[in-house]
Specification:
The chain is mainly alpha-helical and 404 residues long. It contains 15 helices and four strands.
Length: 404
């Protein structure tokens, strides 16, 4: 019989706060610092408004559809709208159900906030708000059910410990789709206006990620400890490898490259954190920078899409690598599932199916949604004069910096 565990509850409470740290100030500082000065407030606003909207959706009905009793592997059956009927002492495993709801709410809000990095400086606020509402309902909730809520990918045996598919590939594919609909910015150069903000945001992401991955087992145990160790290791290796790549390619290390490498490593280890050991994490973290570096500096230029802050390049591409790598390096002694190296090649195929399904669904629905909004709103992109002048002044009548 499963009973309430105060230690597990305390741990997941802490992890929930850590994911909230990622969802609001970390992403806001990271994206805000990377944007142009004339758009920094708008960039931060996109993260804040997205998280707020998703929070309301999640507790109203989103959680129920994502984690309710499975219907044909596609969606959950809602039974507790507005969380009515969930008592304070109801349990999900050994923790209160309400705590699980909030932990998952932080994941949902973060996922939508991540998408905003691809479209900074050129999307109408109203369009972003509507996109957030519809995307959370039509894309995030179903994919969360497929992978974590008892849906068809979970039934198939797809492994995604903390969100490689649900969070990173999902947001990356959506970001690419919206960027394609929006088109290129008038000025595609993007020298960070305040790299210090971006470094602070990356540091907060690294810190918060320990709760993101460490709490996903919903228990204060050895699995949580392993998740934190391999997550930190992948980030560290990713930073080192990207720094080495910068030094080799451009002749000098860059701070932007260093923090990009850390985030790429964290993204890649996310689906694997509860299934791999230290050697696997070393390889996953070391290869992630190569994957994202190629996407940002080769694939992006070749295909011509304008993903402003490289959401697809970092979250999408490293998320793909991490999901497949989970099927390669999973060890039974960690998560109870063997990967390719441990003698189960079929797990790689399952992981590839989960990758294709997540990317295809998220990209297609996101692209259609953006196109429909573009037609219905006479364009989801701001006027050229507003884009050139900056969205802080033209959309918010505010300035992040007042030097008068």
């Amino acid at each position: 019989m499963v009973v309430f565990n105060a230690g597990d509850t305390a741990w997941v409470l802490v992890c929930t706060v850590l994911v909230l740290l990622m969802s609001i100030p970390a992403v806001a500082f990271f994206y805000g610092g990377l944007s142009k000065r004339k758009n920094v407030l708008n960039t931060i606003f996109l993260s804040f408004i997205a998280f707020s909207i998703v929070s309301v959706i999640w507790v109203s009905f989103g959680y129920q559809f994502a984690f309710g009793s499975d219907i044909s592997g596609l969606i959950g059956a809602p039974t507790h709208f507005f969380l009515q009927g969930i008592a304070l002492d109801d349990l999900n495993g050994t923790i209160p159900t309400l705590l699980f709801v909030m932990f998952q709410c932080a994941f949902a809000g973060l996922t939508v906030a991540l998408i905003s990095g691809a479209l900074v400086g050129r999307m109408k606020t109203k369009a972003w708000v509507i996109f957030t509402i519809v995307w959370a309902c039509l894309v995030y909730v179903p994919v969360a059910h497929w992978v974590w809520g008892g849906g068809w990918l979970m039934q198939m045996g797809a492994l995604d410990f903390a969100g490689g598919a649900v969070v990173h590939m999902n947001s990356g594919a959506a970001a690419l789709a919206v960027a394609l609909v929006l088109g290129k910015r008038k000025d595609t150069s993007l020298i960070p206006h305040n790299l210090g903000y971006a470094v602070l945001g990356a540091a907060l992401l690294w810190f918060g990620w320990m709760g993101f991955n460490g709490g996903s087992g919903l228990a204060a145990d050895g699995l949580a400890a392993n998740a934190i160790i391999v997550s930190n290791l992948a980030a560290a290796v990713g930073l080192i490898v990207w720094t080495a790549l910068d030094t080799y390619v451009v002749g000098k290390p860059t701070v932007l490259g260093a923090i990009s490498g850390a985030v790429a490593g964290l993204v890649a280890i996310t689906p694997a954190a509860g299934f791999v050991d230290v050697p696997g994490a070393l390889v996953i973290g070391a290869i992630a920078p190569f994957v994202s570096y190629f996407a940002i500096y080769r694939l992006k230029a070749k295909l011509g899409y304008d993903d402003a802050l490289d959401v697809w390049g970092i979250h999408g591409m490293s998320g793909i690598w991490g999901a497949i790598a989970t099927g390669i390096f999973a060890v039974p002694s960690i998560g109870g599932v063997a990967g390719l190296i441990a003698g189960n090649p079929g797990q790689v195929l399952i992981q590839i199916i989960s990758v294709v399904a997540t990317l295809a669904y998220s990209f297609v629905i996101s692209f259609i949604l953006a196109k429909v909004l573009d037609k219905a709103m006479s364009g989801i992109r701001v006027d050229e004069s507003k884009e050139v002048g900056g969205l802080d002044t033209n959309l918010h009548e505010e300035s992040a910096y007042n030097f008068n």
